[in-house]
Amino acid sequence: MNDNTPQFSALHYEGSFPESTEVGATLLKVVATDADNNRLIYSLPECCNSKTSLQLFAVGAETGRSFSNFGKRG
Question: Where does the source fall among the domains of life (predicted)?
Answer without folding.
Answer: Eukaryota
